[in-house]
Amino acid sequence: MALTFRAGDAGWMMLVGAATLVANGTPLSNTMSAGEALNALAYNVIQFGIPAVLLLRLADALVDAGRLPSLPAYMAVVGLTVVGGIWLIAPQLYPLLGKADWWRWEDNFVLAGTTLIWHGLGVAVYAQLRFSRRAQAHLARLQDAAAQRERQLAATQLLALQARMDPALLSERLAAIDDELLNEPLRAQARLAALIELLRALQPHVEAEVSTLAREIAALRAYAQLVSADAQHTERLHLAGLADPPDWPLAPMVLLPLVRPLLDEGTTLWSLSLHGGAGVAELRLRALGPDLTRTLQAAKAVPLAELARRLHAVHGQSAAMVLLVEDMPLFKLTWPVPT
């Protein structure tokens, strides 16, 4: 349980003391000089303002920690403030601030009755505001937890979808390998190794809840090798600075479906690079040419809306995927990463 005080608490102590003084009618029903009014204000601030704020902070901490229900906690604030201020604190102030000659012991009970009413109303309003804030904070936590569960479910579904190898792709590549075995056995073996690496990269870890950038780059590199001429180099995809990518969480079924149709187009060279800031990562996939017309056609054929939806499902609305057409098409994929 943490008892915290705020920068404005001194001002609230002054305000509670002044409000108590005015609410009890002391400066209104008595002809008081400026010095007497200042003395009465000092009494009320020390008697009621300081204890009320300190006890409210204690009650806040106890209620937030679940140690006490809110109703008895805030009722106790009112009772302790009034009783302690009148019968415990005030007598200690007599030698310092003096005591009015006309003040009798019966006046303590009158003061206690009126102060209980005003402080009870004030603390009731304060407790209601605190209850509203706690309810809003609890609702926000529930909404965050629900959103997190939805993102985890989306990532799990995408991982399962990714693990299902496209039958058409598998059949096409196995047929190509079969043809190469007759004339280019070494190339066929390299292409088969690239296919095996792709299949391995697409299989999620048994405890994985989301994919990672390193895993997605491994799958992308294997596919680029698989469709290359010699099955050993990513000749039409330059992976700039991605030899050892970080294990940042990344939605599956986004990066490979983005790059695959661009590589299948067959002529354009592409460069993929990683950029990052504070808590944000960005992948930039830039076309290098040579044929602008065919490259634009391939870029516009990418199912960008569907890939962006998958990205949002896992990383929230702060993630984004856009296509910019400058001299050559440029895809930008941004998503939040752990700091």
UniProtKB/TrEMBL annotation:
The keyword Membrane applies. Keywords: Membrane, Transmembrane, Transmembrane helix. The keyword Methyltransferase does not apply. Residues 157-228 form the Signal transduction histidine kinase internal region domain. It comes from the Bacteria. It holds the Pfam family His_kinase. It comes from Pelomonas parva. InterPro entries: Sig_transdc_His_kin_internal. The chain crosses the membrane at residues 41-59, 71-89, 109-129. This is Signal transduction histidine kinase internal region domain-containing protein. Signal peptide: none annotated.
